[in-house]
Amino acid sequence: QELSAEMAARKTKEEQQSKLDHARAEKEEAEKREREAAKTKEQERVRREIESVRKGEQQKIVQDLIAKGNIKVNVDDIENLDTQKLVQLQVEQIEKQKKEVNDRLRIIAKRLDHTERAFRKEERPLLEEDYTR
Amino acid sequence: MVRFTSKRPILLQGHERSLTQVKYNAEGDLLFSCSKDDTVNAWYSHNGERLGTYGGHNGTVWTLDVDYQTKFLVTGSADNMMKLWDVETGQCLYTWEFLTAVKRVAFSEDGELIVCVTEQRAVAQGAIRVFKINRHDGRIQDPEPISLFHPIGTKATLASFGWDSKHIITGHESGKVAIFDAKTGEELRANEKAHHEPVTDLQLAPDRSYFVTSSKDKSARLHDSRTLAVLKTYTTETPLNSAAIAPLRPYVLLGGGQDAMSVTTTSLRQGKFETRFWHKVFEEEVGRVRGHFGPINTIAVHPDGRSYSSGGEDGFVRVHFFDVSYFKARPYGDLEAEE
Amino acid sequence: DADEDIDYTDIDEKYAVHYDESFLDNIIVVDGIPIVKAERKERLVTKLGQDFNRLGASFKPGSLHMPWDDENGQNRGYVFIEYPTVDQANSAIAAIHGYRFDKNHAFAANRFADIEKFTNMEETYVEPGQEEFKAREHLRAWLGDPQGRDQYVILRGDDLQVFWNGRNGSSALVIGRPRWTESYVAWSPAGTFMATFHIQGVQFWGGPSWTRVRRLVHPHVKLLDFSPGENYVVTWSNEPIQIPENARTGPDIFSSDDEGNSVAVWDLKSGFVLRTFPSGQQGEDSATKKMVWPMLKWSGDDRYVARIQPGQQISVYELPGMHLVDKKSIKIEGMQDFEWCPWGDRDRDDQDGKTKGKRARENILAYWTPEVVNQPARVTLMSFPSRTQLRSKNLFNVSDCKLHWQNQGDFLCVKVDRHTRTKKSLYCNLEIFRMREKDFPVEVLEIKDAVISFTWEPRGERFCIITTNDPNFGNAAPGITIKTAIHFYQLERTKGDFRLLKTIENKTSNSVFWSPKGRHVVLATMGSQSKFDMEFWDLDFTGDDAPRSDKDPGANIQLLNTTEHYGVTDIEWDPSGRFVASSASAWRHTLENGYALWDFRGQELSKQVLDRFKQFLWRPRPRTLLSKDQQREIRKKLREYSKQFDEEDAAEESTVSAELIASRRRLIDEWNAWRIKVKRELKEEKGK
User: Fold this and answer.
1) What is the band of A73 on the pLDDT scale with cuts at 50, 70, 90?
2) Which residues of C touch A127 (CB under 8 A)?
3) Segments forming the whole domain that contains residue C35
4) Which residues of C touch A106 (CB under 8 A)?
5) Of residues C609, C671, C685, nearest to B338 (C-beta)
6) Is C600 within 8 Å of A101 (Cβ atoms)?
7) Is residue C629 part of a domain?
8) What is the rounded distance in angstroms from the CA atom of residue C79 to the CA atom of residue C31?
9) Domain final residue pick, C104, C134, C164
10) What is B17-245's CATH topology?
11) Is C592 on the interface with B (CB under 8 A)?
C-alpha cells in the first residue's frame, strides 16, 4: 500500500516533472523559433534596405546619366539594370564627355587659328598703304 | 616618335661600378660584360643567369671581345694587361703586359688575330698592336705582336678589324676616323673631321662593310668601311657613349647622356636615360627606351636582332626584348631598306 | 664676326667734311626756326642760345643774326651764326642739323657759303631725317606673312636666331647670326626693332634684310626701355658718362654736359640724345638705394615721360624737348609710387578722329601716399597736363599698395596689403576704380588671405588673384612649395561690380599668364625646385551655348590640360593667343636648358633641349590696322575664311607628305643600290 502510494506519488511527480520538462522544452522551442523569425526578419529588412539604397543609387546614377547627356535609357528599364550594365553606361558616359570636350576644343582651336589668319590676311593690303603713307 | 615598350627587361646585377663594354657572342646565347669594378662576367642572355666570372684584373676592365667560336675571350684593363681566357672554364690562358692601360681589344672575323689599343701616357706612346693567336693551345702565345705602330697626331682610343683582317679601323680622341694597314701600320685613309669631339664607340655591321661611330659631339655617324665616306649622320642633343647597328630592322641604337654632374635629379631618380632608336637611312629618330639611372655607356644588339643590352654608369646591365610593336612598327609605310 | 661690331667709320665719314678756309666758312645758316612776331623775338633768341649751348654749339652773344621780314612784322625762319673758327662752325652744323626744336620745328644747318641754295626754300619745312627714313625698308614687312605666322628670337650663348613659328610646332629659320649680342636681346613694344647690347651701346635691327636701323652710343649700357609708341628709348649704364678729350661732338653723342650722368633719353628716329639724368637709383642714402627700372615712365601717347622722386614729387617732361612741363614738378608729400593710365584702343581711335565727336581722354596718372600721423593713406587719380585731381580714396591700416592698370585703361585696381590692428596678420583689399564711368566709382573687395598675385585679363573685364594662407608663406624653407588658391572674378555689367566666378583650391601655382587676347590662362608653379607644373585653362569653354548661370557662375571655366616643363623659368604667350612658349634659361640654372612650344590647349608641339640657351622672346605686334567694323565683318564671314584655310592646309599637307614620301623613296633607293653593290663586291672578294 505504502509502496503503491509511494509509486503513485512518484509517478505523479514524474508526470509533473515530465510535463514541466515538456513545457519548458516547448517554450524554449518557441523562443528559438521566435528568435529565428526575428533574425530572418531583420536580415530581410537589412537586405531590403541595402537593395533600396542600391536601387536609389542606381536610380541616381541613371538620373545623372540622363541629366548629363542623352544616354538611351528607358526609365522603365531602370529596375532591370544590373550593376555591370550601369558601370558600362558610366564608362560610355565618360567616353562621350571626353569626346565632346575634344570636339569642342577642336572647334575652338580652329576658330582661334582661322580668325587670326583672316585678320592677318585682310590686314596685308593695309600694311602696304601704311608704309607708303 | 614612339616610346618602344619592351617586355619586362632583365636587370643584371653583377657589377658594383659603371659598365665599360657589353658584347654578345656569335650565337647570341651569351652576353659578356666588363666594368670599372675590375670584373668580367658572362651571362645567359635569355634569362640573365650568370654563367661565370673571369677574375684576375687589378683595375678597370675597359674592353673585351669574344671570338666567333666562343672559345676565347680577350680582355683589356687599366692594370696595363691584356688577358686571354677560356670562355668555358673561366681560366686565364695567357697575359700580355704593357706600359699603359689597354683601351680596346677586338678579334678578327676568323679569330686568328687580336688588335689591341694601348693608351698614350708620359711613359709610352699610344700604340696599336696586332697579335697572332695560337688557337690550338691558348696557353702558348707569342708575347710579341706581329705588328706594332703608333698613330701620330691624335690619340687612338678605338680599333677594330675592318672590311677584312688586313685592315684596321681606328677612332681617335680628336674625332678622327682612319684605316690602317694591319701589317705595315701605314695609314691608308683618314677622315680627320668625322666628329669634332672624341669618338666613343665604333661597331661594325654584321658583314663589316660599314660601321657606326658615336661621339661626345652628340652625334653618331655611319661610315663606308673601305672609303670612310660618311653615309649618314644622327644628331642628338646629348653626348653619346655608344652606338650599335640593329639587324632585322633598319635602326641604329644610340646611348649616352649628360654627365652626372649636369643631370637633373628627376632624370636620375626616374630612370630617364634612354636608348635612342634612329632610322638608319632616314636619319630620323623613331623611338626610345628608358630605364637607366645614369648615362648609358655601352650598347650591344643580339645577333638575331630580337633583343639588346645596355650597360650604364649606374652599374646595371639591362637586357631588353623587343615586343611585337617594335617589329610591326612601320613609321614609314612599306619602304623597306636592304640590310 | 667682327663686321657686326660697332665701328665709328661711317659716322666719322659723315661728319668729316672739309672746306676751303675762306672767310665765310665760319658762318652757318640754320633753317627751320619758328616764325614769331617782334614781341617774342627776344624769347626765341634766348631759347636758341640755351638749346645750342646744350647741343654743344654755343655761340657768343651778338654772333646770331635773325633776318627780319618788316612787311609782315616777323622773322624769316632762318638765322645766321658766326663762330670763331671753321672747326667750331663745322661741329655746330653736325650738332644742330636735324635737331627737333619743338613739335613742329626741326633745324637744318648748313654752311653760309651754300646760302644760294636756300634762297628759294625759306618757308618750306622739310622734316629732317625723314627722307633717310623713307628710303629704308618696310620695317613692318614681317606682318605681311601670307601664312599669318609670328616670329620669335632665341638667344643661345651669344648667338641669335629668329624663327617663324609654323603650324603644329614646325619652325623656319628667318635669320641667325653668331655673336649678335654681347648680353641679351629685346624687342621694341610693337616689334619693329630688335635691340642688341654691346660694350659701346645699343644697336637696333629690323626690316626684311635685318640691317642695322639705328645705333646709340652709350658705353656699358645695361638697361633699355622703349616708349610705348617706339619713338623714344631710355638707356642706363652702371658707368657714369665720361667724355674723352677731343671727342667728336654731335647731336647723337654725349657732350660734356652729360658727364657723370647714367640715364639717357634718345629720339629713336633721329638717334639724337634728348637729355641725360644722373642715376637710376632711388633712396635717401646709399644704404637704402635701389635700382628702380624703368626709371622714367611714359604716358601712353609718347608725349610725356615722368620721373619720380619718392616722398617728394613727380617730374614730367614733354617730348621731344624734354623740358619740365610748366617748369614745375608735381609736388606730393610722401608719395610712394605712380603709374600712367595706359592708352586703350578707344583712346587712340578718339585721338585719330575715328570716333565722331569724341576727343581723346586726357592723360591720367595714379599715385598713392602712405599713412602718416592723423592722416590716412590715399590713392589719387590726376589728369595731366591740367593737373586736376579726378578722384581720391582714403585707405586705412595700409602696409603696401600696388597699382594695377588694365591694359586698355578701363580699370585700375589698387591692391592694398593691410594689417590687422595688432599688425600680426596680413590681409588684402582690392580697390577697383572704373575709369570709363562718371566720377570713377570705386568698389572694394576684401580678401581675407594674403594676395600674392593680381592680374587683369588683357582687354577684358576679368581678373585673377592668387591667395595663400600657407603658414610657410613669407619664410618658406628651400624645397617647400607654398600652397595657394586661384580665384577668378568678373565684372557684373548690370550691377557694375565684380563677383567671384570660381575658386580653385589646394594648388601650388604662383604665376598667371593671360593670353594677350584674353580668355585663356596658363597657371604655373615657378621658382620651385621640385614642381614645374603648367595648367591650361579656358574661361569661356562652353562659350555662348551655355550662358552663365547665377547658380554656378564658374561653369564656363574649364581645365584643358595639366603638364610639366622641368626647370621652367619663363612662360610667354605669342601675340595671337594661339601658342605658349615655356623656357628654361641658363641664366637661372643649367638643368635641361631650352624651350617648349604648346598650343593654347596645353598640347606640346615641340621641345628643344639646348645647352647655353638663355632667352626666348616672341616678336610683339603693333595694334591691328583693321578698324572695328572690318574686324566685325571678318568675324561674320569666318565660315568662308575657314573653308578656304582648311583647303589651303589640306593642300599644303598633301604636298608636304607627297614630297616627304618622294624624298624617302629616293633615300631608300640610294641606300638599297649601295647595299646591293657592296654585297656583290663582298661576295666577289670572298670568292677569290
Assistant:
1) low
2) 138, 140-141, 143-144, 625
3) 2-134
4) none
5) C671
6) no
7) no
8) 7
9) C134
10) Methylamine Dehydrogenase; Chain H (2.130.10)
11) yes
